[in-house]
Design brief:
Blueprint lengths: L1 E5 L6 H14 L4 H21 L4 E6 L6 E7 L5 H8 L9 H14 L4 E6 L2 E7 L4 H25 L2 H40 L4 H32 L16 H8 L5 H6 L8 H5 L2 H18 L5 H22 L1 H15 L2 H6 L3 H22 L5 H18 L2 H14 L4 H14 L2 H17 L6 H17 L6 H9 L17 H26 L5 H5 L2
Antiparallel strand pairs: 1-2, 2-3, 3-5, 4-5
Helix pairs in contact: 1-2, 2-3, 5-13, 5-16, 6-11, 6-12, 6-13, 6-18, 7-15, 7-18, 7-19, 7-20, 7-22, 8-21, 15-19, 15-22, 16-17, 16-22, 17-18, 17-22, 18-22, 19-20, 19-21, 19-22
């Protein structure tokens, strides 16, 4: 933190603002945000000079593009409204309530919770915060990731099992569980109201149908490409060893039990979309059914919007409430990442990991190839700069990597889509839908794992078997929930179709979390790429905002 004292003199304001510019530049605050803060600081300082008789204290703290500026001076109290009047060049008109409302809305939009005015013990105190930098959030998540791995490894390696178990069961797991429960509570309503309000906002149902068709078609095409990449990567790296079959244990019994209730048939997938009641889909977080109900409600609201406009307004209000709750949850992601990684390292069986370590780099090779394809699609099909996409979307990618859950990452994905300049009309529809039916990373993992297990169990893979795998994996990827461990359950369901016992998933259970993190990262990235490309073609992308650094 840097602090200076200036005399109670308007002539000293220039000295203070020059100090402020230097400190904001040193903290890498974006230029436009820095100018906004300096202009606001000038008015804050002039107001303090008018109400104070002593020197004024100015301090700046922060890092990596974020800063908090604090002003304090003893003197007579002034109100927040008086400062607002100065911030907008004395344009408030006491006789024009409508103009005042507009100005106050502008103030709220520009500053909102980032400007705090208070009076304590004869001292005026003003706090001005810059908008939070994406780099700051990235730093916190990465720091939590590294620290969680380090703490978990230390507990696993150097402490008695009773100590590490106690830490896992009473500290790390409860925090992660509370967070995931909160997400389960809010994700279903968020998806429902996000899609319903988005559809209701379309006055042209034909335009909506065209948009939905493009989104779903893009998702299916990229899923097929991902399955093909998984097959090609395995042909290049034919991992597997028949000796590994002897290592199959009954540790996967719970996974096998979960998979026994699933059905990979297309008929079953279609029949399960329509729910028998409106409560169960929310209770069980059945995203396909929730999306179906959201589409029905959204279309109904759109058709009735002229007669009953309050229906559309109600959907928007509920969507805003859910979005606000999720933004609070996003704020504690670094803590959850720390606990999740620490718990993973405590429970990870390193010796088991080394037995089949080749499975991880094979999957990562497939993910890397899919990332290249996604960036090419952005450039060739969307006409967009792929590096700008990475620059804008990487915070959501880091979040996906850390939490290993598409649904848990949804709030971060929505936030970054907005940062890229994508219209809410499309991302509020396509991203929740993609979290359910677009699983590019999972497609790659399922294909590589199926061929890996076939070799371990000495099964010859035929052409008809490959075709069957393509169809089954595509259906599974559409029906799989966007929660941690979903792909592992799909693996247990897929294995018997090629003559491999479902219990074979016990071979990869120990290292699944490591592969799953990048798996989900690619799922989420694929959703955002499709959203950006389609938004570009529909004229729903702010190119200036997208290309802005």
């Amino acid at each position: 933190m840097k602090t200076i004292q200036i005399q109670n003199d308007l002539q000293q304001i220039r000295t203070a603002t020059e100090f402020l510019r230097r400190e904001l530049n040193a903290r890498k605050v974006p230029k436009k945000e820095g100018i906004r803060c300096v202009l606001a600081a000038e008015e804050i300082l002039s107001t303090l000079v008018e109400h104070s008789t002593e020197s004024i204290s100015l301090s700046v703290a922060g890092f990596l593009g974020s800063a908090e500026i604090s002003f304090s001076a003893k003197g007579s109290e002034f109100s927040a409204s008086e400062l607002e009047e100065k911030l907008f060049f004395n344009q408030l008109d006491s006789e024009n309530e409508e103009a005042n409302a507009v100005i106050h809305n502008l103030i709220s939009k520009l500053y909102g919770k980032n400007l705090i005015v208070r009076y304590e013990h004869g001292t005026n105190k003003v706090t001005l915060k810059t908008k939070e930098s994406q780099f700051a959030q990235l730093f916190l998540v990465l720091a939590a990731l590294v620290e969680g791995i380090a703490i978990g490894y230390i507990l696993h390696r150097f402490f008695p099992e009773t100590v590490s178990t106690f830490a896992s069961e009473n500290v790390f797991k409860p925090i992660s569980t509370l967070f995931m429960n909160a997400l389960k509570m809010i994700v279903a309503p968020l998806v429902f109201f996000s899609i319903a309000s988005s559809i209701a906002d379309f006055s042209d149902i034909k335009a909506l149908g065209r948009l939905a068709l493009k989104v779903v078609s893009f998702y299916i095409i990229t899923s097929i490409i991902a399955i093909g990449i998984g097959y090609l990567v395995y042909r290049i790296f034919p991992i597997g060893n028949p000796e590994l079959a002897a290592g199959v244990t009954h540790a996967s019994s719970s996974i096998v039990q979960k998979s026994s209730d699933a059905n990979v048939s297309l008929k079953s997938a279609i029949m399960s979309i329509v729910p028998s009641d409106i409560i169960t889909p929310f209770k069980e977080s059945n995203m396909l059914q929730i999306i179906f109900m959201a589409v029905v409600v959204g279309l109904t609201a759109s058709s009735l919007s002229k007669k009953i406009p309050k229906i559309k307004t109600a959907l928007v209000i509920f969507n805003d409430v859910c979005s606000k709750i999720t933004s609070v949850l996003v704020g504690i992601i670094p803590l959850v990442v720390f606990c999740s990684m620490a718990n993973m390292m405590i429970s990870l069986d390193l010796s088991h990991l080394l037995n089949v370590a080749s499975w991880i780099p094979a999957n990562y090779a497939g993910y890397f190839c899919m990332l290249i394809v996604d960036l090419l699609l952005l450039f060739v099909v969307g006409g967009l700069n792929p590096f700008k996409f990475l620059q804008k979307f990487y915070p959501a990618m880091i979040t996906a990597f850390s939490l290993a859950s598409s649904n848990a990452t949804l709030p971060a994905s929505i936030k970054q889509a907005d940062e890229m300049g994508i219209s809410k009309k499309i991302y509020s529809f396509s991203l929740p839908l993609g979290a359910t039916i677009n699983m590019n990373g999972s497609c790659i993992m399922l294909m590589i794992t199926a061929l890996f297990m076939a070799k371990n169990f000495g099964i010859t893979v035929t052409g008809s078997m490959i075709v069957s795998l393509f169809v089954s994996i595509l259906i599974l990827s559409i029906g799989a929930p966007g929660v941690p461990g979903a792909t592992l359950i799909c693996c247990a369901l897929l294995m018997p179709q090629i003559g491999v016992p479902a219990e074979s998933v016990s071979l990869i259970m120990g290292m699944y979390p490591i592969a799953s993190m990048m798996n989900v990262c690619m799922n989420v990235t694929g959703d955002a790429v499709a959203t950006a490309v389609i938004a570009r073609h529909e004229g729903l992308l702010d190119l200036q905002k997208y290309n802005n650094t």
